[in-house]
Known about the structure:
Protein name: Peptidoglycan DD-metalloendopeptidase family protein
Domain M23ase beta-sheet core: 54-120, 140-169
Number of helices: 4
Number of strands: 47
Shape: flat
Radius of gyration: 27 Å
Helix content: under 10%
Organism: Danxiaibacter flavus
Distance between the termini: 88 Å
InterPro entries: Cell_wall_metabolism_enzyme (IPR050570), Dup_hybrid_motif (IPR011055), Ig-like_fold (IPR013783), M23ase_b-sheet_dom (IPR016047)
Amino acid sequence: MKIIKYVKGAACFLMMVFSIIKVAAQYPRGYFRNPLGIPIQLSTNFGEIRPNHFHMGLDIRTQGRENLPVYAAADGYVSRVKIEKWGYGRAIYITHPNGYTTVYGHLNDFFNELDNNLKKQQYATESWEQDLRFRPDQFPVKKGQFIAFSGNTGGSAGPHLHFEIRNTRTNNCHNPELFDFNIPDNVPPVIYNLYWYDRRFSTYQLGPTNIPIVKKPGGYSTAAGVVKVGSPILSFGIKAEDKSSNSPFMFGIYAASISVDGALLNSFALDNFSYDDSRYVNACIDYTNYMQTKGKGIQHLSKLPGNLLHVFDPADGEGIVMLADTLPHKVSIQVKDVYGNATSLNFTVQLSSDLHQQYTPPANVRPVIVNKENVVTGNYVKAYFSKTEFYDNVPFVLVEKNVNSKNSASPLIELHNALVPVDDSFAIQIRTTLKPNDPLRNKVVIFKLTGTHKEAMKGKWTGDWMQGKFNRLGNFQLLIDTVPPAVTPVGWKNGQTLLNQKRLVLKCKDELDEVDNFRATLDGKWLMFGKKNDDFIYTFDEHCPAGAHTLTIMATDKAGNVTTKQFTFVKK
């Protein structure tokens, strides 16, 4: 019997290796070239855990510098250019004849013809942010042709190139390392921690139980030998990372599987899914632990009931371990990278009735059921959740607090807490304490605070209720906002003569959220400022010749408060 189980376990291991090889064989190897002129060294790989999303490409190091030449990875044409404050900042999309599109993000200047076309559109529409589409005959490119300089634009914390490969038809992102970019890697993944969950209850009810592990020749095992558990229904999770041979950085894992007594219970491989589905990262990890620790995330080796991400093998189970007896059972966990380097964690689990525990939820809990529509109501709030909103059952807690402050227009609503994720935007209605004819209603916004993340929204009034949509739980309140944004020059002063200065920077901040709208004119004509965090930046060009100038700034917040400021300067 033991020999049969061993053979089955080995077969599961080999099937996972063969599936990785099969997936890699589906993609054209050697078709795409390195998009930089230096060897590829990664700082982030595909599938790494990020807040509310998987990382969807490769972050390629640029030696800590900006303005390295970026080259087209293959023949094709520039099909799209996107300019945005966050995200990939300045990005180029190249569509190739083999059915794939490559994406290059956080760029600085593009090649001249493309830059000139973009700038023309920006001034014609009086908008710095753009999302332009092009025909195949407008900007054709050859493999290895210069397309842009690398940068640090958008939601980037340092100079690097973000590089993606997408399916042109589906727009799904693929793991670029499966296309063979000759990145050296003979290092197996590392497993740091092992955890078990009592799955008689929601993963949001009971936290993980840590199981100490030790590294041994050939893999990992548990420090205590047999793992005794108090639940007949459980699942496991791990903290693990991967590494390449030529980079000091640690990366996200590509694939993992779990088997019990030789039977494969669950497996996944991170490849081929869309940005719309990337938010399911919150179902693939212990989100509560991730938010609390701000560290390496615990990745579930089971599929939560509301997880619809298509990275799991449908032939496997859900990863739930059912212990119908008190006998010892062999558990094998395998973690692999795209090159087949593997790490194993093998141990024995056994049900112990002496460890059995029961969980009683608090009295004020309102059960929210996964895969069903749910409505949570109070005296001053109504929240509507779709049937795909949650990944597991939630012991939901609603608290309404009277907060006396000069700018409050409703009680403070604690809509559960920031430690449980939602998959999509939900509708919330909050009832105001302001009288129907109060003119301050025109200055009311819905303000949300989730941990350190804050957001203000100008909602829609329906009687005494203001409605908005949000994609995070947390604290909500109607606030009266009569304070306009603050606009401050950075590195220069009003009335100054500017010598050898390459740009103008203005810091524009609002007390509740980002500035909703920013408009600048120079001597009465629209002037293009780019954006980076709270800074608005104009780089001197032909639109600002030498001489005396008047710069007028108008900044508007979410409540409609407007700041208008006028500056003068002389450009030498």
